[in-house]
Design goal:
The chain is α/β, with parallel strands linked by helices. The chain is built from 14 helices and eight strands. It has one domain: Rossmann fold. An eight-stranded mixed beta sheet has the order 1-2-4-3-5-6-7-8, sandwiched between helices. The N terminus is likely disordered.
């Protein structure tokens, strides 16, 4: 999500209307590029099998993190999937629900259990006033995968991490450092640059302005006022979804807008967006660094990159840079823009399911 052009101009300069995500991943030993032309599907109510709260501890402070589990009963040989939402102003587990449901209902020798976890400060998790950064989010992901009491603790060393946008890149970065050890990683419309830095750059003068905007958004009273202007209003949310989050504006329904608007009204909702918009959640600073993250996983962890046919120009360029890149095992394209898992969930689910089957077949 991006702030409105007029309001942001007061702090920065000209209008802003670009994507909030870019891309990452592995050398094409199994390199394929496939375009899937699939229509969007209705978003039915997808009730999880289980919901809960997990306590993440950061700087000695407990943070309650929401998660939900999707699984079929009486299924043997079950493998685990962790799905993490795209980091944005309106990030939510809801974006993965239809994908999770479609994957776990498939019949075969292998069954799947999908756990979707909200980021701290986003979705239905607690939103404390932390100094959020890419390192903080990486710390959360590392604890989530390694803690004995986490929702994915019983994965027996076989866990596929699926993420969108910045979430995917943070997972790849953590894996490259050896901090997590997933069986495979799937990156859906992955990104690395926040909305404002990708438009206005990272010069010292702009960093000063980002700091001013970030401080204003975090301030007690004026922060909510600015947040309401930039993010927390239905008109802005609808505009962003129609311009670059979804590929087809007709798929942006009033229900989606209302649901996302409600998320922006939760206590502490402005803290992570203040960091995201101004680039503090960016896991790297350049395309070269971005590609290097995936190169580190070459020959070690299988990586799927799911690009989209209608991404904004700058995001699309980063995705295209991953075709045949070192560390990218498989590259496919599906319909959509920056949130294909929500707009075209069955197309994304099909690619993920194929990748899961291939990944676990190679392990056995």
């Amino acid at each position: 999500m991006h702030p409105s052009a007029a309001a942001t101009a007061a702090f920065l300069a000209p209008a802003v209307a670009v994507s909030n995500r870019l891309v990452p991943f592995r050398r094409a030993r199994c390199f394929t590029v496939r375009s899937v032309a699939s229509p969007p599907v209705p978003k039915p109510a997808s009730s999880p099998s289980k919901t809960g709260k997990w306590q993440w501890t950061f700087e000695d402070k407990p943070v309650s993190v929401y998660y939900e589990e999707h699984a079929q009963e009486s299924v043997e040989n079950v493998k685990n999937i962790l799905m993490i939402p795209t980091i944005s102003d309106v990030s939510t587990v809801e974006e993965w629900r239809v994908v999770a449901k479609d994957i776990v209902k498939q019949k075969g020798e292998i069954g799947y259990r999908a756990t979707i976890v909200d980021w701290p400060g986003l979705g239905y998790s607690d939103r404390p006033s932390l100094n959020y950064s890419a390192d903080v989010m990486e710390n959360f992901l590392v604890q989530l995968l390694n803690s004995p009491n986490s929702p994915v603790a019983d994965s027996d060393g076989e866990l596929v991490v699926v993420g969108g946008g910045h979430a995917a890149t943070i997972a790849v970065r953590a894996a490259g450092k050896g901090l997590i050890r997933p069986s495979a990683i799937a990156a859906v419309a992955p990104t690395w640059a926040g909305p404002l830095p990708i438009v206005f750059g990272r010069g010292s003068d702009m960093e000063t302005r980002y700091g001013l905007l970030r401080g204003t958004l975090r301030a007690p009273a004026i922060g909510w006022m600015m947040y309401n202007v930039l993010v927390s209003n239905e008109k802005s949310i609808q505009s962003q979804y129609k311009s670059h989050v979804y590929a087809n504006p007709e798929n942006v329904t009033p229900d989606i807008v209302e649901s996302r608007y409600e998320l922006t009204k939760r206590k502490g909702a402005r803290y992570v967006p203040a960091a995201f918009l101004t680039g503090l959640l960016d896991p790297v600073q350049s395309r070269e660094e971005f590609l290097q993250l995936f190169a580190k996983l070459d020959g070690d962890i299988p990586v799927l990159v799911v690009s989209t046919s209608n991404s904004p120009k700058r995001s699309k360029a980063e995705m295209e840079a991953l075709k045949g890149a070192k560390g990218v095992t498989k590259f496919v394209e599906v319909p959509g823009a920056l949130l294909p898992q929500e707009e075209y969930p069955l197309a994304v689910a099909e690619e993920l399911y194929d990748f899961l089957q291939e990944s676990y077949s190679s392990i056995r």
